[in-house]
Amino acid sequence: MSLESQELSDLKSKIGREPTSTELQIVAAEWSEHCSYKSSKKHLKMLPMTGPLVIKEKGYDSGVLDVGDGYVVTAHIESHNHPSAVEPYGGAATGVGGVIRDILSAGTRPIAIFDGLRFGNIEKDQQARWLFKNAVTGIADYGNCLGIPTIGGEVEFDECYQNYALVDVAAVGFGKKENLIKNHAKKGDLVILLGGSTGRDGIGGSQFASDSLESEDRSAVQIPDPFIEKLIIEAILEARNEKLIHAMKDLGGGGLSCAISETADALDIGIEMDVEKVHTRESDMHPDEIMVSESQERMLIVTSKIKLKKLQIICKKFHIGCSVIGHVKFDNYMHIKKGKKTFANLPTDVVANATLLDLPSKKPVYLDTIEKEKKLKPITDYSKLMMKFLASPNIASKIWVYGQYDHEVGIRTVTKPGRDASVLRLDNGKFLSAKIDGNPKHCYINPREGAIGCFEEACRNVVCTGAKPIGMLDHLQFGSPKDPEIFWTFLESLKGLTDFAKFFKIPCVGGKVSLYNETPAGPIKPTPVIGVLGLIDKKPSIPQKISDNDCLVIIGDTKDELGGSEYFEYVHKFIGGKCPVVNFEDSKKNMFSVLKVINDSLVKSAHDCSKGGLAVAVSEMCMTNQIGCKVSLEKVPGEKLSVDRILFSESHSRYLLALERKNLKKLESILKKNNVSFKEIGEFGGYRIQFTNSAKSIIDLRVDKAQKTWLNSLRDLVLHG
Amino acid sequence: MKVGVVVFPGSNCDRDMYHVLSDVFDLDAQYYWHEKGLPKNIDAVVLPGGFSYGDRLRAGVIAAHSPIIKDVQKMAKQGIPILGVCNGFQILVEAGLLPGVLLKNESLNFMCEWTNLIVENNTTPFTNQFKLHDKIPIPIANGEGRYYVDDDTLKELKKKNQIVFRYSEVVNGSTDRIAGVCNEDGNVVGMMPHPERAVESEINPIDNKPSSLIFESLLTKTGVHN
Predict the structure, then answer these.
(1) Is residue A1 over pLDDT 60?
(2) Residue A558 is part of which domain span?
(3) B63 lies within 8 A of chain A by CB
(4) Chain B neighbours among A 503-542 (CB < 8 Å)?
(5) Domain extent listing, chain B
(6) pLDDT tens readout for residues A408-427
(7) Looking at the domain that runs over B2-221, which CATH code has it been given?
């Protein structure tokens, strides 16, 4: 893969001559969609990226938030979709590695990993099962070895990912504000490549990721080595403590080409480097290969000659490579040599800044009719349906996945995986809550409202732990931007996210765009994945164990919004209908009221209503607490709806609260004062999950039986098909 | 009292263990890098969990050949309390300081979950504050955590009271549900579960007191408490 003809003539006119082959390789890597964001960059500017807690520094690969008392939290999200679709183990593992190094680049220690995984229909498709199983093992083997807990994420299956995989990894770092690397370079500074050796893996990986997936180009997939990554983390944090780093960047997509040009461009310097100085895995590598190899576990460091000695001592201690490959100049050129011979000499701003595109967009035709519903087959036995639903891959517990991840290492995990969001303790006595959420089924039906819904769901999850959202990460995954209809869905999602972020004053602190997620069978559904970080000032009072006679209160209205719901798609095999829409005002009222009643210690447990609707959310509370519950559907506030719609609507802004009866009055008065729509709809106790409608039994399940099915079905499906 | 925390390339529970020893139990903990020796005036040694050398070849086998292990072996002979947790246990086994081997879990997967231990020997420096058969809620996190010995060795272990902890139920298929063992003298103890992850109430959802007794036992043994 190389430059398009227009880009080639652009390059020629910018440098005023024919480019060399090495230059072509460098520019093709850096101008790939993956590295340059050329299709999306113009539009991404609409997102709010500043706020009172956001710390901005040049050249950061991760977002930085001030969490008080001299501490910062860093966060970033990336995907590794193409590699994972070809080689799920290595693709997923190196996906973890890459985002961890982004966190490290700021000078913070990575303290948590989150992963969002999406595959085809694993009930039918053996290959989807294989991809799923191996991606999970890849993440587990990598993250566990690093000793960074994987504490959250999501797993979803949808036909649109047939023969494909979405592997999104987010990471969070923590450190002292004073230890942040303030990227800078001084005259005479050296450029150092630290870590693993450069080999022939991941050649052209960024271009591979910037086209639809048609061939299994294995040489474009990187090989993971978590052991070296762990050594790099410790070595770099030691070097950071000794203030040995002037500037730092991880080597990811585009390898050295990208790291050198972007570092030089961000710091407004030039860099001269010699490929012969790079420690390589093979002796006969061509300069072109060295420049675009995406071998993992490498960091680029700029430091002075004096500090180099100390850095070398640290690297020797950890037995990791540390090569001086070049030095800083002030001519704003990247000058690539082999010995004395020049192979490339390019202005860094040309390399680092591809010509941005303004692609045409057009509303997809399918959207004109998508909201029209078909006639559904009536449900005769809701209890039976519910058991099937709890066993379905998207609803079933993901314990088979997170049970393979070390989620305790680091001894920060206060709230463990399996809840709305995990919570970590920080060194300043505060607590961090984080969650990532996506919903391609909603986004397919309405790209704008679906994306907003993902954002709100991530907020709801974090709010259910008692945390106030302080920052957002967006990961926008779509098909080819050259298709105007797909590009329209991208823009709609982005606009929706922007509106919500501005309304709630939640800054976007990091993100990634992944386009060309297509196979010969077609593009994926629009899949924005949103991460939200929340902060809790004191030790969270929830969740507490729910006990007999505790009451169940729902906040928020249940509406006729079943488009893209699990009920329509899994039970009725119907894609269409009206997707849930977030009312910003209601969303805000509900969110802040839930935070208020949690902070006032009025509730024992809070849970958001999302995939599978009210029926699944109540069941999850019961199964997690091993207690029954009796719910009266006629009491559920909202539109007047048929029983199935009340049970399975996926309307947003809804929360379930469990509380002691003695606190109900106080809770009601707060909610009334805040003008929030709510109702006590049930009571916990016994050992059955029961839904009734005007005294008529609708669903009646034994908690233990339901729980067994819910916990084991995903594992059984993976292992036994 | 001085406790040495041995750090290998790839150790990843060293900082957690250090925090628990120094901040929770107020001990004088020190890190010791695997290439260095241990000082003579040390009162106890802990080998923390992690992935020393990335678990290459077999968990713990490369670290067992580190220079520092010679000192650990010497101290073991002198009767100094030595605790190996998770990868630390694997290293002690590979170094020949403890009997048995650790195989891949029966599920063939890495397993991270909370489980219960039963105290089977309350005479070691790490269990002297327990009553026999006390229960300890504690998390495991390992891929190669299935303890295995043959029948003859199992008989020996029972005879010499070397089984320190059992799982309360079958967790990973280990021989006789063994979760931790000691040497014949009882001063070297290895266990797969992570006590350092269970001693603080903030992160222990069940009860942090039982696992705290592992460290309280050490304090008692070395005369800090009596």
Answers:
(1) no
(2) 541-721
(3) no
(4) 539
(5) 2-221
(6) 999 999 999 999 999 999 99
(7) 3.40.50.880
